[in-house]
């Protein structure tokens, strides 16, 4: 299901610039993605679980010291800093929101890793990098916000060296959407500026862009589903503080989005890993 509209990238940037970046950072602790609780263990806090997700996905990249990693849709930078620390990789993070990039740069400065972890505003649909410039690409919960998955995959593949890996998480249509449910799902996706993938599309998506699909896993029950329960709990507990900081309209919008997400069981969350094939797209 591709969204071809050009406005989508701009709208996403504006949303994050206008409060979204800070709202997510406040609730999720500088990670703008869901948590991961392995083996049904729900004792970890949302903050620890969001770091777990970073480790799970970045672990698929088998990074070595000095590897050049592109963090595609880097948010406010916590995943990039964490991965750089753990692996010794040299990380470039890009996002469509100047506000996020600014916060991310401050974080890497504060954490003392700004020589190895840098950020810039760029559109994943037209990456300002040369072919084969990176050893690995990470895209945590970002491709669903982009106007075209096909272009996101093509650009990721282009900037990867042969044999380099692309690991990402994405939202997909987990169960068929009944006709009467479509309006709720559409509203929910609209508020998140997101589209859903079809799991069956990934092999072709990879083949068309010079990638080989290595792993495709439905991790919804360990990530997406429990995260929304936790997010709602945190927001409820800090309601007054959040309303004062972000304003009544933003809080109301977030409430509506969270209520919709909680009720929408058709959305799934996937881990996808692919490898750049020698010789590129066929
Ligand atoms: N990966 C980060 C942030 C996820 S939020 C984390 O896990 O914390 C989604 C991110 O995708 C945001 O940083 C947003 O700016 C970025 N994004 C959305 N559309 C984009 C586009 N077209 N080009 C580059 N980044 C984009």
Distance between the first and last residues' Cα: 22 Å
**Fraction of helical residues:** 40-55%
Structural class: alpha/beta
Radius of gyration: 18 Å
- Biggest pleated sheet: 7 strands, mixed
Q: What is the residue-mean pLDDT, rounded to a whole number?
A: 90
- Strand percent estimate: 15-25%
Inertia-based shape? globular
H-E order: HHEHEHEEHEHHEHHHE
Strand order of the largest sheet: 3-2-1-4-5-7-6
> What compounds are bound to the protein?
S-adenosyl-L-homocysteine
- Are there runs of 5+ residues with pLDDT below 50, and where? 1-7
Number of strands: 7
Number of helices: 10
Could you characterize what this model shows?
There is one protein chain. The protein is an alpha/beta fold and 282 residues long. Helices cover 45% and strands 19% of the residues. It contains 10 helices and 7 strands. Strands 3-2-1-4-5-7-6 form a 7-stranded mixed sheet, with helices on both faces. β4, α5 and β5 form a beta-alpha-beta unit. α6 packs across α10, α8 packs antiparallel against α10 (248-263) and α9 crosses α10 (248-263). The longest helix is centred in the first third of the chain and has 22 residues, at 7-28. The radius of gyration is 18 Å and the shape is globular. The two termini are 22 Å apart. 43% of the residues are buried. Residues 1-7 have low confidence and may be disordered. S-adenosyl-L-homocysteine is lined by residues 9, 12, 16, 31-33, 73-75, 79, 94-97, 100, 123-125, 140-142, 145-146.
Structure characteristics:
282 residues, 10 helices, binds S-adenosyl-L-homocysteine
């Amino acid at each position: 299901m591709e969204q071809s509209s050009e406005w989508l990238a701009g709208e996403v940037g504006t949303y994050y610039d206008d409060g979204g970046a800070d709202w997510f950072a406040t609730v999720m602790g500088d990670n703008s993605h869901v948590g991961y609780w392995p083996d049904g263990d729900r004792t970890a806090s949302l903050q620890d679980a969001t770091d777990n997700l970073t480790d799970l996905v970045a672990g698929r990249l088998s990074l070595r010291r000095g590897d050049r990693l592109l963090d595609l849709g880097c948010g406010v930078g916590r995943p990039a800093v964490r991965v750089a620390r753990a692996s010794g990789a040299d990380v470039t993070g890009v996002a469509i929101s100047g506000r996020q990039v600014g916060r991310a740069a401050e974080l890497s400065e504060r954490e003392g890793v700004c020589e190895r972890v840098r950020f810039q505003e760029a559109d994943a649909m037209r990456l300002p990098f040369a072919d084969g410039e990176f050893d690995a690409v990470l895209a945590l919960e970002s491709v669903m916000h982009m106007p075209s998955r096909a272009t996101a995959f093509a650009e990721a593949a282009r900037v990867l060296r042969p044999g380099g890996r692309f690991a990402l998480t994405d939202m997909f249509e987990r169960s068929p959407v009944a006709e009467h449910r479509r309006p709720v799902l559409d509203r929910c996706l609209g508020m998140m500026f997101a589209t859903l993938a079809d799991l069956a599309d990934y092999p072709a998506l990879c083949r068309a862009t010079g990638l080989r699909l290595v792993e495709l896993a439905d991790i919804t029950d360990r990530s997406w589903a429990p995260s929304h329960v936790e997010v709602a709990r945190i927001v409820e507990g800090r309601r007054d503080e959040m309303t004062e900081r972000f304003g009544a309209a933003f809080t109301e919008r977030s409430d509506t989005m969270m209520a919709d997400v909680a009720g929408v069981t058709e959305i799934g969350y996937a881990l996808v890993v692919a490898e750049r094939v020698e010789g590129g797209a066929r």
